[in-house]
């Protein structure tokens, strides 16, 4: 089927936006192709009444799509990079990482209040252990409540008064046209983003030169450098998507700077460091930064979090 191509995606509005964007970019480069979407429901989509960390962190939003890719039912898969575990299944690889959206977290609140202006004991919604740990460090008085569902659902819960504020990824909010709802962009110094946040992952089969040639045109070199460094940090820490690990990389000229952290669930203990080196060494710099955190006790924290969450 050389003139057709099937993209696997989740069915949420954001996932479909991302998949349609990739579809349109491929069609621009290859107008002869008939590109179709295949919507696949993942475990993370089916279980909505349990915090993600309690469901099981690895592959919650990608496994079923990866299974379809491995079996040949689809030709490539589109994920939010922050949902992709550090370990890619045998037979698959990351074919391209397009230009990244804003990687920061954002506050959306009633009365358009920023983080430090929220009232004492304000109810803040997030199911991310990474976010809740860092928020507790900055504002120990906040009441952190679980929040699941797509962006529309989360906004509805905020508007109906279930929360005083919610924390989301800026990228999804912006892609779906809700930028006017953002009360504050959280600087990385306040809340360090998730590994790969704001970036897309185009996943393909390793031995598929036709698809590799098609998707490689969508790769953004600087984004690939930065995200690869962040992911090597995550991989070295053996962290899943629902563990309080964060990393934020930046390229400035010939240098790559990466800040990473590991936190406990209370936010009382946060191990955080920054490393800088040549941009072409982003992967080895991510590993080196992880080793620094491990030497300072990060493994003990991660083991405790995994035990509590299991």
CATH fold group of the largest domain: D-Maltodextrin-Binding Protein, domain 2
Helix content: 25-40%
CA gyration radius, whole angstroms: 19 Å
> Strand count, sense and closure of the main sheet?
5 strands, mixed
Describe the protein's architecture and organization.
The protein is α/β, with parallel strands linked by helices and 310 residues long. It has 3 domains: 1-98 and 200-219, D-Maltodextrin-Binding Protein, domain 2 (3-Layer(aba) Sandwich), CATH 3.40.190.10; 105-186, D-Maltodextrin-Binding Protein, domain 2 (3-Layer(aba) Sandwich), CATH 3.40.190; 221-310, 2-Layer Sandwich (Double Stranded RNA Binding Domain), CATH 3.30.160. Helix content is 35%, strand content 24%. It contains 11 helices and 13 strands. It has helices at residues 13-29, 43-46, 52-55, 63-71, 129-138, 151-159, 170-175, 209-215, 221-236, 282-295, 298-309, and strands at 4-9, 34-39, 76-80, 92-96, 105-109, 123-125, 143-145, 165-169, 184-186, 200-205, 245-252, 255-263, 270-278. The strands form 3 sheets. A 5-stranded mixed β-sheet has the order 2-1-3-10-4, sandwiched between helices. Strands 7-6-8-5-9 form a 5-stranded mixed β-sheet, sandwiched between helices. Strands 11-12-13 form a 3-stranded antiparallel β-sheet. A hairpin with a 6-residue loop joins strand 12 and strand 13 (270-278). Helix 9 (221-236) packs parallel to helix 10. It starts with a strand and ends with a helix. The relative contact order is 0.15.
């Amino acid at each position: 089927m050389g003139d057709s191509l099937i993209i696997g995606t989740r069915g949420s509005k954001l996932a479909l936006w991302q998949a349609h964007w990739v579809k349109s970019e491929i069609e621009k480069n290859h107008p002869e192709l008939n590109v179709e979407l295949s919507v696949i429901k993942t475990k993370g989509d089916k279980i909505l009444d349990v915090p993600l960390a309690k469901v099981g962190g690895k592959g919650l939003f990608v496994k079923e799509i990866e299974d379809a890719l491995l079996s040949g039912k689809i030709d490539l898969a589109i994920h939010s990079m922050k949902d992709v575990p550090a370990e890619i299944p045998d037979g698959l690889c990351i074919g391209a990482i397009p230009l990244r959206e804003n990687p920061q977290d954002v506050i959306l609140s009633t009365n358009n209040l920023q983080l430090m202006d929220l009232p004492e004991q304000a109810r803040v919604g997030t199911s991310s252990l990474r976010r809740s740990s860092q928020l507790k460090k900055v504002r120990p008085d906040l009441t952190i409540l679980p929040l699941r569902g797509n962006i529309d659902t989360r906004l509805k819960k905020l508007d109906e008064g279930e929360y005083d504020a919610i924390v989301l990824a800026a990228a999804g909010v912006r892609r779906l046209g809700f930028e006017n709802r953002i009360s504050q962009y959280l600087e990385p110094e306040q809340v360090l983003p998730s590994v790969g946040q704001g970036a897309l992952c185009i996943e393909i089969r390793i031995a598929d030169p036709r698809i590799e040639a098609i998707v490689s045109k969508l790769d953004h070199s600087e984004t690939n450098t930065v995200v690869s460094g962040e992911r090597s940090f995550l991989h070295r820490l053996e962290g899943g998507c629902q563990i309080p690990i964060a990393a934020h990389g930046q390229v400035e000229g010939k240098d790559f700077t990466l800040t990473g952290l590991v936190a406990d669930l209370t936010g009382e203990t946060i191990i955080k460091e920054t490393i800088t080196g040549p941009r072409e060494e982003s992967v080895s710099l991510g590993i080196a930064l992880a080793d620094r955190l491990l030497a300072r006790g990060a493994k003990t924290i991660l083991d405790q979090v995994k035990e509590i969450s299991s």
